Amino acid sequence: MSMSPSSSSMACFADGSLELQQAQVSEGAAVADEVMAALERNGVSFVGLAGKKDGKTKDGSGKGRGGGGGGGGGVLQLPATVRIDIPATSPGRAALKVWEELVNVLRKDGADPAAASLNVKAFTKILKKFVKVSEQQRATDLFSEKVKRSPFSSSDKVLQLADEVECIFMKHFTGNDRKVAMKYLKPQQPRNTHMITFLVCSRALLFHSHVSGIFTSTGNSAYMEIVYHVFSMFALISLHIFLYGCNLFMWKNTRINHNFIFDFSSNTALTHRDAFLMSASIMCTVVAALVINLFLKNAGVAYANALPGALLLLSTGVLFCPFDIFYRSTRYCFMRVMRNIIFSPFYKVLMADFFMADQLTSQIPLLRHMEFTACYFMAGSFRTHPYETCTSGQQYKHLAYVISFLPYFWRALQCLRRYLEEGHDINQLANAGKYVSAMVAAAVRFKYAATPTPFWVWMVIISSSGATIYQLYWDFVKDWGFLNPKSKNRWLRNELILKNKSIYYVSMMLNLALRLAWTESVMKIHIGKVESRLLDFSLASLEIIRRGHWNFYRLENEHLNNVGKFRAVKTVPLPFRELETD
Description:
It is built from 23 helices and 3 strands. The chain is mostly helical. It has a domain of 373 residues. Helix 10 packs parallel to helix 23 and helix 22 packs across helix 23. One of its GO terms (biological process) is cellular response to phosphate starvation. Keywords: Membrane, Transmembrane, Transmembrane helix. It is a multi-pass membrane protein.
């Protein structure tokens, strides 16, 4: 393509003296020469530029390139026609590169309008502080006038050059269509909304309400037992992802740099909208599958109960899918963290590893549901055996016992690994003791469920009370950094992110109440089987809510104080958004 830089540049200058125009041409040519050199380094070639870039001919006459003549010695003159070789497949990217190089050159001279605006605001705030301290309003007025007349505030050089670039770009790239040109030169960030999440959530709630009505009208208890485990498993996963989305939303609003703390890439890490959409999609898919399963069963279709099994296979396939769809980087990161947790003694404990292991300690009911579901669908129970096969066997009970304390065991191994790596830090040993006490309490409750005698009632009360006190102390003092009697914020910590201190006190009381959910296991509540299942599901959901609530304050304390010592320095960079040029 062809363009005439000299004529286009001169057309953009206003009236003025010949000397001023010559000075502007000289200055603009120097900028153009620097931009063109930068573009040549990036692969853009110019055809028609003869001679050296010093603006002089071989005979030293001072004439510009191509012998354009005139205008004063040493002034860079461009030929009448210059061809720029730009790949036809990406003209917009090349144009953005032109714009980026020009802006970078201008920023070297301090002519960036955004920087000028920030500088004026900074001077204004400094002068206000000066007035407050010195009470010299007259001197401040003089300073303000000086700042307003200063070149960095009043210069319109960058605006003139920006108009010139826009003029050239519109003429040669978009056919004088300013609207199209601005899409390339000043791209707008897409506006994020919750519309998709809202629609999916609405559909999921619609299916859920319909399914609930059907369940209340059916008398097939065996079917309800099967569906209960499958539905509860996915429901608890969906709830946990939703609460993680709430955590991401709060961390973003309070400027807690969770991606830096977890060592996540900001380009591939989940946002709160991604988490909300993922949670709603899971619930919508699962409830729709259960509705179809119920319709098939009522119609007498053979192997109708295989549909939940197909849903499990689909979920497993999505998790291990090698294609770059459905948040592949997040899925692979999750599997990598789970590998590190399961083989805790053999991998260095990172922040994301211990954080995920703590999430698993709140998902023990989910692991129990997974155990039953695997037994029911993998052992062929849906074809030949009733569902009681996976609940009454002795091996099933022993496996349930192992699953009840397996997350605590993994977390204790992580603490022991850090105890050895960090020079025998006693805090890591004490943290491992907390999880050992939780394992003991879980074992006692399991024994009480099998042998409900008065002796085991007292054992449950003693062991669970001790473990709860241990856990509450660690939550408030170690994980959250509260209960500091010397803090300037009464019984909290010195540094707080939330301005309303009462939120912290309410959160402590809420964490205390939810930690006492185990007391339900020793209460003789006489309710039906369906109501008992509903109560168990509610308690499991409350524990997940408690964990989501715990997550925010744990990461807040990590952001402020580096309590986990996962970082070499205490400082955490603020999570400013990185803008992309393409």
